[in-house]
Every structure is written in structure tokens, then in C-alpha cells.
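Changelog excerpt

This revision adds worked examples to the README so contributors can see how folded entries look when concatenated. The first example is reproduced verbatim below.
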Amino acid sequence: MEQSTRIKKDEIPFEKLEKVGVKKEFVNHMENNELKDFLNGFRSSKLYTINAQINNEQFRIPAKLRLQKQENGVVDVKIHPIQRLHVPDTYMGHTFTKDEKAALLNDKNLGKTIELTSKDGKKDSYYLGIDNKTNELIPLRTKNIKVPEKIKGATLSAEQKQKLAAGKKVYLDKMTGRNGKKFGAALQVDAANRTINFSDFKQEKDLDQKQAKSKGAKQKVG
């Protein structure tokens, strides 16, 4: 059954996209989850080359695309070109400390949750990160991320779940990859991609062999 989205596929304003130089066939190359996010009003995961006028000159520049549905039902196209990497002094009512700016610039992730104020004046708890393709600051409400009990077959402890939900980085081992092999990695909420990011991978083959040897166990072959 097709999942419902904020915007239907037949509502995509292809004529507006073609005006900025994007052919309608681009949606046919999107994966299912990517298309679902796009139809829900999130930025495209890929960069597309668009027409842009800068100082009365025409250019072709890379940018992410986003759909926005107005109250009257009209769907507009929003353009998100690559920006200079910069963290402002204040953002959505929050004044950044020196350490917070450094975390965003160095890690592309604030590493914690903060209270931000939306355009309608409502305050909420957010994760905050920087899009690694466009350098935009991306806020994500904490309620939009649900930390699971297990990730890749490995169970998170209560402490790990709490830290992960708070935007902090945690290390989880004994996860199982697609190839069936065990691995460990650092996990952290990625606001820009609305997911949990994996980094600092470590294959556990050598570790398992050392543990088995110390216990006098024999390695299985097969």
C-alpha cells in the first residue's frame, strides 16, 4: 500500500522545476525513501544543477530542492544552493556559545539538544546540524527521532538510549552488517539527514578472535 505524504506525486510543479533547469525525469531516479521525504517537504538528498541569475548574469549552480505546500494548496519549489560555511551568532532565538559554534563548524553536529523558537513563536526541543552538501544549518525537532531498542541487531542500554536521544555520541558494538559480520561504530542523531549516523567503524573479527583465544575456545570454520 502506498504511504501517504504531504504532497502527492502528481502535485509536483514540474513546470516550475523546468524553469530553473531541472527536467521532470529526476523523480524517476529517486529511491522510494528519498522520494517519500521529498514529497513530505524535506530537502532533496542529492544536489541538482539549476539556473541562477547573479548580478544580472546567468549561471548553472548546484543546489538542493524542496517542495512547500501553501495554505491555498499551491506547491512551490524552494532552492537551497551551496552556502559559505558559517554559524551566525543567533539562530531561531538561540545565542550560540563559542563551544557550540566550534562543535557545529568542526563536527557539523551540535552534539546536544537545545530549545529553539519557530517562526510562529512556538518553542520546542531540537537537534541541530549542518548539511554537509550545502552548509545550511538544519534544525530537527527531537520528537521526530525515535531511538530504537536495537540497532543492527545490537541492544542499546538505557544509558545509551538516553545519551543518543540527548544528541550525544555513543559507541555500540556487536552490530551485524549486511555481510553478516559483527562491527562496532559511534552513533549520533544526524539532524541534517533526519537519521542516526554511523562513524568510527570497527570490525570485530580481530576482537572476537582474541576473546575466543583467551577463553581457550576454538574458532569455527565455515
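The second example, added in the same revision:
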Amino acid sequence: MTDTEVPGPEPDWQPATQPPYYTGKNPAFQYSVWEHCVSLFQMIGVVTLPVHPVAQRLRLHVERSWDGLDGLDVVMFRLEGFSFAMSRHDGNPAGVSYVWFTQPHKEADKALDTLLEVVGIGDDVVAFRGDPRESPPAGFCDVAPTTSAWARLRCIIGMPRASK
């Protein structure tokens, strides 16, 4: 087998991970494993605590990832019959984490209560129950319902919109 040398990137190609996607000269764009799977998840709440203390309490490994918003910490785990993910973006000025179902379930409130009980904290850390991407709580965000889920999430967590 011969060694084939692959040329470097063209000088005017932006990084493939840089949003807004499809706007530069690079013909490729990269997405993370998190971006790929999160669209399948159901957000069930927003909590005012970081991922790391929860992970330490439950002896979980925090994974580092990124998406179209920012770098993030995430843990995925099963707890008393519920499949969870918990994520927190680096640039989130509100300092909140998102709690997700990784598999469909109808008992979101019960699952969130179970998580809080096992972690040993009260529900005073719950900033919002439900999926703010679908129905942002009053005062959180002022974006049209037809706006993309990522744009609504950016608004909810207080991040500026991506420049086009």
C-alpha cells in the first residue's frame, strides 16, 4: 500500500464546527454526537445547578461535548426506571442545566422528583418543568414559535443569536 498525502484545508475554509453552518466556503460541517442524539430527547426541566455535583453524587462520568450553541458537559444515566441526560452549556449566563428523557416516557414530573430525591436536594432548584423549547416560560424568551429549537434555546438561556 502506498502512502497517499492528503492536502491541507483550503485557506478560505472556516472550521467545520463553526456555526452558522452552511454559510462559509468549507463544503463540510461537523456535528457532535450530542447534536445528533439530542433531537431525539425530551426535555423535562431546567434546574439551577451544575452537572458535576449531580454526577459526583451518583458516581457518574461527565462527558465533554459541543453543539451549535457552545461546549457543554453532559451525563446520561438510568435511575429507577427512567433514562436521563443532564446537560449544561459553558456560555449559559443563567447557569442552568437541562434535564432530558433519553427514551420516551409520560411521567416527567415523577422522573424529575425522583432525580431530586436521589440526589438529595429539594425542588427549589427547579427553574422550569417541561420543555421550554416548545413553550418558553413567560419572561424567559420572546421568540416566535416558528423559530428553530436552537434559536429558542439560545434565547431562553440568554445567549445572543448566531450571526448570519
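Reviewer comment on example two: Helices lie at 33-38, 51-58, 108-119, 149-156. The mean pLDDT is 83.
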